[in-house]
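Board notes (copied after class):
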Amino acid sequence: MNGAPAKVSLSEQDLDRLAENLRQVVEGEVRFDRGSRALYATDGSLYRHLPLGVVVPRTDDDVRNT
């Protein structure tokens, strides 16, 4: 193993289901739109990895539930 994250491939239906499940257990924001995903694809390095979605937690429980 080289330490690189595993590539996950989900269908749009799977992503919609994941987003809906997260919205039911998270008080904060759940963002799965292309714009939000693109904004969080970089971290100041040269690497770019498009996330499946973005959760902006409001509480410690949001972090645990995510």
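Comment from the instructor: DSSP finds three helices and two strands in the chain. The two ends are 26 Å apart (CA to CA).
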